[in-house]
Amino acid sequence: VQLQASGGGLVQPGGSLRLSCAASGFTLDYYDIGWFRLAPGKEREGVSCISRSGGSTYYADSVKGRFTISRAKNTVYLQMNSLKPEDTAVYYCATPCSTWDYWGEGTLVTVSS
Fold first, then answer.
1. DSSP-assigned states of every residue in 23-82
2. What CA–CA distance (Å, rounded) separates 12 from 111?
3. What is the pLDDT along the chain (113 residues), one digit of tens a residue?
4. Please, are residues 16 and 6 in contact by the beta-carbon 8 Å criterion?
């Protein structure tokens, strides 16, 4: 079971990025999938989660109204708008959302002018 996050990069404050999560060895469609982030000197923060059906979503207060999670065939996306410097972190997709037991290589998001 391995998840792969991609789509990170350097963006100016106020900009946007879309992260993608893909999997090898299993089908994402059968699981709730979420995103957490790790920033230097900070605790791991659960950012967002989407249920298996896509009908239920969760957002941390810090990203509510700016980030949108969605899913398509075997892929989960995190659309990030109005990015702030404090969003700078390595972002990981993981499952299940309650325990983040399975996750793989993250993608670095840097928000800086």
1. EESS-GGGS-EEEEEE-TTS--EEEEEE-TTSS-EEE-TTTTTTEEEEEETTEEEEEE-S
2. 5
3. 689 999 999 999 999 999 999 998 888 999 999 999 999 999 999 999 999 999 999 999 999 999 999 999 999 999 999 999 999 999 999 999 989 999 999 999 999 99
4. no
Q: How far is CA 104 from CA 62, 85, 113, in A?
A: 23, 24, 29
Burial of 80 (0-12, 13-18, 19+ CB in 10 A): buried
User: φ and ψ at 30, to 5 degrees?
Assistant: -90, 0
